[in-house]
């Protein structure tokens, strides 16, 4: 392998992640209710395959990142599985261990099942709260102690 002749181009930040849902409307409503995301007022076609479905982009209003939730006509309705090729899980950072407890309470109020906050030191110290969206996609909130 030869050494690169130029520096890696810059990345300016996280923009969005796209996921596929079995029920677009139910997933959009869930992400609005649970994470406070706000949908843009238009849908996005699958460019080059417009007949295959479309997406709704939901923005996190304070930070500007987004989740695109896609509907695919050919989706057989199979739930997400981290054991299959593709996205294993998605995680967000929180500022403190106490924030994880607050999130656990929030998820309880919203009727969202979760695994409770787990504190571990293996392979490094961190705390995590694991929950799943309506299509079984694993979502995590993580705190790394300073």
From TrEMBL:
SUPFAM superfamilies: Glyoxalase/Bleomycin resistance protein/Dihydroxybiphenyl dioxygenase. Residues 13-144 form the VOC domain. The keyword Transport does not apply. PANTHER family: FOSFOMYCIN RESISTANCE PROTEIN FOSX, LYASE, PUTATIVE-RELATED-RELATED. CDD domains: VOC. This is Catechol 2,3-dioxygenase. GO terms for molecular function: dioxygenase activity; metal ion binding. InterPro entries: Fosfomycin_Res_Enzymes (IPR051332), Glyas_Bleomycin-R_OHBP_Dase (IPR029068), Glyas_Fos-R_dOase_dom (IPR004360), VOC_core (IPR037523). It comes from the Bacteria. Gene3D superfamilies: 2,3-Dihydroxybiphenyl 1,2-Dioxygenase, domain 1. Keywords: Dioxygenase, Metal-binding, Oxidoreductase. It comes from Geodermatophilus aquaeductus.
């Amino acid at each position: 392998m030869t050494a690169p002749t130029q520096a890696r181009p810059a990345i300016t930040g996280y923009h969005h992640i796209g996921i596929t849902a079995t029920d677009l409307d139910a997933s959009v409503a869930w992400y609005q209710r649970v994470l406070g995301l706000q949908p843009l007022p238009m849908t996005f076609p699958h460019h080059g395959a417009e007949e295959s479905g479309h997406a709704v982009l939901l923005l996190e209003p304070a930070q500007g990142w987004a989740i695109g939730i896609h509907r695919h006509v050919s989706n057989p309705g199979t739930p997400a599985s981290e054991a299959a090729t593709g996205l294993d899980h998605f995680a967000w950072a929180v500022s403190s261990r106490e924030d994880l407890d607050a999130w656990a309470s929030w998820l309880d109020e919203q009727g969202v099942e979760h695994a409770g906050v787990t504190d571990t030191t293996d392979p490094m110290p961190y705390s995590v709260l694991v929950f799943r969206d309506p299509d079984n996609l694993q979502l995590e909130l993580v705190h790394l102690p300073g």
